[in-house]
Amino acid sequence: MNQLNQPKFRHTPVLVDEVCTLLINDLSGVYIDGTFGLGGHSKALSLLLNDDATLIGIDQDESALAQFDPSLIKQSLHLMCTNFENLDQVLDDLSITKVHGILLDLGLNSFSLDDPERGFAFSLEGPLDMRFDRSNELTAETVINEYSQEQLANIMYRFGEERNSRRIARKIVDMRTKKRLIEIDQLREAVAGCVDPRFRNKSLARVFQAFRIEVNREMDVLATVLDSAVKVLAPGGRLAVISYHSLEDRMVKNHFRDLSQDIPRQPGMRDDEVKIPLLKRLTGKPVIADPAEAAANPRARSAKLRVAERTSHAS
Ligand SMILES: C[S@@+](CC[C@H](N)C(=O)[O-])C[C@H]1O[C@@H](n2cnc3c(N)ncnc32)[C@H](O)[C@@H]1O
Asked: What's the pTM value of the predicted model, to 2 decimals?
């Protein structure tokens, strides 16, 4: 086997059969994998699509894209290293106006999580980095050392739903007045000092998630891409989103719900009260992993897949 077929790191794609079944609506269409990672979902889509289909893979992490062997995709493949919030620009650059499917498998790759240098995993030793895109300036170290105590508490509360956010923020500020926090173990120590040892790992997971969301502006970029995605889908085209925490899932759910509302014009109604459905939801409740997949792949346990289809109404 070609060495490139054996990436240094492995990432098992989540809900792969469900994604393929729900996303594909035109075997010769244009598909965007907005979170290409190691290309697990794209490879599965490629096996099902016709040779004249087009695949566009976007990832802001160049180390992910660099590991992929493009010969594994038989269709025309465009790999773009950028944030998916730049979806419009990507399509402009490729002179593509409409697409048939967009997949967003949010969060981070297993290989980034396992790399101590990236600073994502609270159980490893490494720098407080947490950037998906290492060319960005803002790191977790900057956030933790330079944001106010109130900002830190708000981030942990809002993006981590961490109840001890105020106490942890106070502890961080106390620690950083003595010495700048630059390593994962210092943040771990700040959290551990504020929570019951029985719940320590849950709090650590929430706090690390919160700072990762802040560093990568994850909620803002998701809101942007959901808007642009709906505009670039051809009628019948589909948007599939896999999320791994409740904040993301809520945003996707509300977006799909709002855009699938039908409020016909009534006498005396203002224009902004009239709603034509731009989307039709294909999943009522989110699709989750079956017990076998959840047992085999821990990442699949928190995954929720929602899919919606573009209607033929003009936006
Ligand atoms: C869960 S992994 C995707 C794994 C992929 N589906 C596979 O099967 O290999 C998420 C990927 O999305 C990328 N990513 C996250 N947010 C992004 C964004 N805003 N723009 C572009 N890529 C992003 C991460 O760098 C990571 O590689």
From this structure: 0.92
